[in-house]
Amino acid sequence: MASSGNKNINAKLVLLGDVGAGKSSLVLRFVKGQFIEFQESTIGAAFFSQTVAVNDATVKFEIWDTAGQERYHSLAPMYYRGAAAAIIVYDITNQASFDRAKKWVQELQAQGNPNMVMALAGNKSDLLDSRKVATEEAQTYANENGLFFMETSAKTATNVNDIFYEIAKRLPRLQQAPNPSGMVLVDRPAERAAAASCCS
Amino acid sequence: MMYGGSGTQSRRDLAIEYQAQIPTLRPSIHARRANMTVKFQDLYGFTVEGNVDDVNVLNEVREKVRQQGKVWWALEAEKGANWYLEGHISTTLKSSLKISSLVNAITLKKLIRGGIPPNLRPRVWFSLSGAAKKKSTVPESYYNDLTSAVEDKVTSATKQIDHDLPRTFPGHPWLDTPEGHAALRRVLVGYSFRDSDVGYCQGLNYVAALLLLVMKTEEEAFWMLAVLLENVLVNDCYTNNLSGCHVEQRVFKDLLTKKCPRIAAHLEALDFDVSLVCTEWFLCLFSKSLPSETTLRVWDVLFYEGAKVLFNVALAIFKINEEKLLMAHQVGDVINIIQRSTHHLFDPDELLTVAFDQIGFMTTTTISKQRKKQEPAVMAELDQRIRRLNSNSNDK
Ligand SMILES: Nc1nc2c(ncn2[C@@H]2O[C@H](COP(=O)(O)OP(=O)(O)O)[C@@H](O)[C@H]2O)c(=O)[nH]1
Ligand SMILES: [Mg+2]
């Protein structure tokens, strides 16, 4: 229970970004510690949950990994509605995916929750030789738009847990006084650390 | 060897082959004792994970399929090979035949809800769905001409298809082979040129893959896909904004409130949007959620009775889990309940009995009216989103 100063909060998190940027791979790495070259393609969105401990608090992320094909974007509002956090993913070897990421940022800024923690992930950082998007460019964009930025690799696991951890730390509810209204208290350990069955 | 060639030789009965390879599943004593998860192949070659009870259920289903096969064959022996077509197309028949065709129609509806045996599925689906008729309106060489004319073309649709081929039921013993990928590619790419409004939409890869497994020839799978998108499902399910899919979701929410009011109220209180789980069902026609034979039993009815049955089935999934859902207080729990349930619905009758006997009758006309009612709201919502996005990017 939340008696000994421990806070347990649930946080809805959505991943958005171009097809092939590596959203599903990041989630798989974070939730199961795996990397699989060909995962089943996502239809609509897949759901996962994973818990992160931050200081004296436990954050249970309810993660929505959305499908990337353009026409699926009309479904996106249902996944980011009420989300506490978003990771916008692009592929550092693909300039178009960075442009697409900016569009997502705009959309979230226009209609998301103003307190939403937004992270920009430049994924596939292991593919340095084919880099197309400079780190500085992305960092500047992130600073200008109040995003928190990291380059990640789902393949090598670089910065994957870190980005989720950093998001957890930044959740407004963790920084406020304990027990703000509307907070859901969880009094049991996270079930099946990895929700093995995604939305399939 | 080509899987889907047109010669009779290659019309291999995959389902039967799998049955022959794995007669009855016998979980080891070890598995029984430990109640552990075992992996096995189902009727259509998919690897499924389940416990010993699931294996037993699956064995019972195999036996039921065999029994149902006998019923179908007996009817054929009695009434002639294409008797079911008579029940279907009763308009041009003489009055003396009309009574028999009415009897056939009633028999047929019941029989189809009871399931079409896997080895009769290709023939029955092809004629009853209207695919045969659709094919007969174009030259014999249509499919071959189409696929060879477009095989080297590159479009955004073909790129997305190529991306998805290895991600469509990865690990399936036939689908996930170069031969399987090539057949699926021809069907999807061919269709993307037949209807450029649809082009290719993710989700169709799973639908077409399962059609290939059932129909066993590429060409027939292609025509089944065509009849499905052009005649069976609502319009625009898969086009630009998926507007048809948005309409179906709204109709479904109304139906859930009406047919399962307690669940609807409870989920509403949790602020849980049922579309979070249902969208995929409607886009993949359950192929990603239900075990293969259960999915195909839904499709048996879908091709005969129309798209309204998708609502029956979706409602039934909620209904089956009513008590558990009412106890759930978190979004994650709701999703886990639904997913665990769908993945373990190995017995199709368990689902279909609820879908058709407990949910209650809904006519196509009623559903069509509801769709008409929702269309303007969906269009307005989609429009508003686009306008908001545009005005926002102009600001920048
Ligand atoms: N080298 C490399 N490949 C990656 C990485 N993340 C994803 N991929 C590959 O990129 C492709 C698309 O990944 P996926 O997670 O399906 O992207 P999504 O469409 O955004 O969900 C797959 O082939 C992955 O194996 C990464 O960090 N490094
Ligand atoms: Mg994905």
From TrEMBL, chain A:
Molecular-function GO term, any one: GTPase activity
Transmembrane residue ranges: none
Keywords: GTP-binding, Lipoprotein, Membrane, Nucleotide-binding, Prenylation, Protein transport, Transport
PANTHER family, alphabetized: PTHR47978
Name of the protein described by the UniProt record: GTPase Rab5/YPT51
SUPFAM superfamilies cross-referenced by the UniProt entry: P-loop containing nucleoside triphosphate hydrolases (SSF52540)
Its job: Protein transport. Probably involved in vesicular traffic.
Any Pfam family: Ras
GO cellular component: cytoplasm; endomembrane system
Topology with respect to the bilayer: Lipid-anchor
Localization annotation: Endomembrane system
One annotated GO biological process: protein transport
Protein family according to the UniProt entry: Belongs to the small GTPase superfamily. Rab family.
Cited Gene3D superfamilies: P-loop containing nucleotide triphosphate hydrolases
Native source species: Handroanthus impetiginosus
From TrEMBL, chain B:
Pfam family, one: RabGAP-TBC
Superkingdom in the source lineage: Eukaryota
Annotated GO MF terms: GTPase activator activity; small GTPase binding
Domain Rab-GAP TBC as annotated: residue spans: 115-306
SMART domains reported for this sequence: TBC
SUPFAM superfamilies: Ypt/Rab-GAP domain of gyp1p
Protein name: Ypt/Rab GTPase activating protein
Organism: Handroanthus impetiginosus
Highest classification ranks of the organism: Eukaryota, Viridiplantae, Streptophyta, Embryophyta, Tracheophyta
